[in-house]
Amino acid sequence: MTDKLKGRVALVTGGARGIGAASAKALAAAGAAVLITDLLDEAGQDTAGAIVQAGGRAGYMRHDVRDEAAWLAAVAEAEKRFGGLDILVNNAGIFAVKPMAMTTLEEFRNMQAINVEGVFLGMKSALPALSKRAGQWAGGSSIINISSVAGINGAAFAVPYNASKGAVRLMTKGAALECARLGFRIRVNSVHPGVIDTMMGQKVMDDYVAAGMGSANEVRDTMIALHPLGRLGLAADVANAVVFLACDDAAFMTGSEVVVDGGMTAS
After folding, report:
1. CA 190 to CA 29: how far, in whole Å?
2. Whether residue 122 sits in one domain with residue 80
């Protein structure tokens, strides 16, 4: 436990498991109170309960990031339960492996609704609450958008995902500049993970196996080989970057891309 985020309140979407759960736990360990939101009620409640059992402050709320009214309710819940909002982690997202020719327009639009519109609605809905308390902290309030290496480099069989994560990357920069110009003292940065060894990461590999890209072991070895450090990422690797961007150590960072990919995009 540290006190880097003592007194602050964070909202983490998609916080029931994977990167979101690891981020929620790391933020709580650094002293923040955390409202976890997701559609996975049991897992979300379990994650919040684990934080409380470890001595932290956390709660869970069901939340569809595609719904603007649900976003307003989530922000209001953070303020009501914990007294405000200082950190927003837009983590909720989906991924699918599918050839473009076989991808329906409905599937494309649903991915944009969750991965892009969810981030837009989150930033828009949280701005008033984040602005209220930004003056309390040397680095102001913080919005952290979870993008991907797929928002930097292309990936075959993932065109809708590329589109969504590329959008998150540039929305982050636009929002960062806007907040700075308007004097909101809200920093906005993006995090770009490589392949992370979570349930979603495993689904990605399973989808490649199903698409005939090789056996489970072959696909996993191929994914590992993409990372020069020689392993898949851990959810904690990303969570550590989230905590850094949330705290005053990153007070002079806004509009930045923090790449957590074991060197995947270095070449």
Report:
1. 21
2. yes
pTM over 0.90: yes
Question: How does DSSP assign 164-230, residue by residue?
Answer: HHHHHHHHHHHHHHHHHHTT--EEEEEEEE-SBSSHHHHHHHHHHHHTTS--HHHHHHHHHHTSTTS
Instruction: Write the pLDDT tens digit of every residue in 39-73.
Output: 999 999 999 999 999 999 999 999 999 999 999 99
Cα–Cα distance, 174 to 193 (Å, whole number): 20
pLDDT tens by residue, 183-239: 999 999 999 999 999 999 998 899 889 888 899 999 999 999 999 999 999 999 999
Catalytic residues: 161
Number of other residues whose CB lies within 10 A of the CB of residue 185: 19
Compute the distance between CA of residue 176 and CA of residue 163 in angstroms, rounded to an integer: 20
Domain that holds residue 37: 9-194+234-260
Total number of domains constituting the chain? 2
Assess contact for 46 and 262: CB atoms under 8 A. Answer: no
152 and 222 share a domain?
A: no
Q: Would you say residue 3 lies in a domain?
A: no
